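FW: tagging you since you asked about this chain on Friday. Here's the raw sequence from the shared folder, copied in full. Didn't touch anything.
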Amino acid sequence: MIPRTARPRRTALPRCPWLPAAPRAAWDIAVAEDDPAAGTRLGSLLKRAGYRVVLYSKPSDFLSALVRSRFSAAFIELRLPGMDGKDVIRVLRANEESRRMILIAVSLKAGCHPAPVDAFNAGADEYFPAPADPELVLVRLKSLLRRRLASPRREEPLTLGELTVLPDERECRLSGRADKEHGSTARSPASSSARGRSLRLTRLEFDLLVYFLRQRNRILTRGNMLKALWRADPPTGTGIVDKHVENLRRKLGAFGGRIETVIKLGYVLKG
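HL: got it, structure written out here
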C-alpha cells in the first residue's frame, strides 16, 4: 500500500478575534470620503474583514464609477466637497441601477455632525457618526448584506380604494378615476399614465404610507411611529412625525383625508 502524502495545512492570516467575517463570496464596497486618514481607516477595517474596497475622494468620481462598476454597499461621508453626501444618496436612490444598493451614511470628520434624521430622510439604510465603533460598523454591514441576499418572498400589493402601493418596487399609484371623483386639482408631485398617477414620495413618506396601510383603522401614536420609522425615542421630538404626515397628505391629494388626526394621541388611516 502506497502511503498517502499529508497535505500541507494552510495558515490563516491573523485577524482580530471580534472581526465578523465577510460572506464567503467577497462583496465590493465603495467608500466616498474626502478625508484621506478617515477613508484609509475605514477601508482598512473593511479589508481586514474580507471585503473588496474602493476609495473615492470626490463624489463625482464615485458617481462616474457606477457606470462601469457595481457595488453591494457604499459608505458615504455626509460632508463631501462639491456635492453634499445627502444629495449623493438621493441620486443613488432615484437611479434604477443603484436604488437597491446598501447606503451607509457616515460623518467621520471632527466637528459638528449632521442630524441622523437628515441621513435617513435622504434614503440611507444606516448612519454612523465619529467615533464609529468598528465592531458595530461591521456587524451592521454584515446584517444588511445578509438581509439583502436573503431575497425574501415578494410582498403583495397594498390597496385601499383607489390607492395601490407596491412595496418591492416602492411605487405608489392613485387611479385616474379617483382624480375625477374627487375633482382633484392639486399639483402634487406625480406622473400620469394609463395605470393612474404615480406619486413621487421620499423614502420616509413611502415607508410612512406603508406603515399606515398595514395598520389601517388602528390608532398609531406619534411615539410608536417615531420608533418604527425613525428608530428614535420619543424624547428626540415628535414634531417631525407631524411634518411628514402633513407632506404625505398633501401629495395624496383628496385621498390624504383618510389619514385622520386623533387629538393628543396620533393618527389613524380610515379604510
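FW: The domain at 158-269 is CATH 1.10.10.10 (Arc Repressor Mutant, subunit A).
HL: agreed, and The first strand starts at residue 28 and ends at 32.
FW: great, closing this out.
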